[in-house]
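Field reference: sequence -> structure
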Amino acid sequence: MLSHIINFSLKNKLIILLFTVFIIGYGLFALSQIPIGAVPDVTNNQVQVITTSRNLSTQDMEQFITYPVELEMANLPGVKEIRSVSKFGLSVVTIVFEDDLGTYLPRQLIAEKIASASEKIPAGFGTPQMGPITTGLGEIYQYVLEVEPEYKNEYTTTELRTIQDWIVKRQLSGIPGVVEVNTWGGFLKQ
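Structure field:
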């Protein structure tokens, strides 16, 4: 059989040359269409529930916000893992789902449970919100607005929060690839 292939190749050089050029061309085209990243995204299927509060300590955030949200999300179908981080004024609960559920079904399930979780959080302590559709690789760059020591008495925490909301947040939101900028801390000017 191998000798027949070799004999056919020697007798039909033009067909073999055209076939080889076609294979090389198709390979180069396929190579140009492959989405290659510097860091491949191997993130699992997850949804984040983010709650901010103006002045709750870490322990209070855990007790009054993070725990009720975790408890409400625990019995959702397809949940593999629930992780959380509580900081001063910030609670982030990450719910990891099985990969075969897709992107939108878990978000719909979470949206339904957020309402009942909100009822268990005391009034004025914060409202849970679903994070944007992003992967774990895109999450969170945290920064702090600080004032140089010689200007320390010129800016209050309310003014720093206003600068964050009206200047820094708007500039960061205009950068391609930035999905959402969440602000926590300071006092909201009303």
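Note: Residues 141-190 form one domain.
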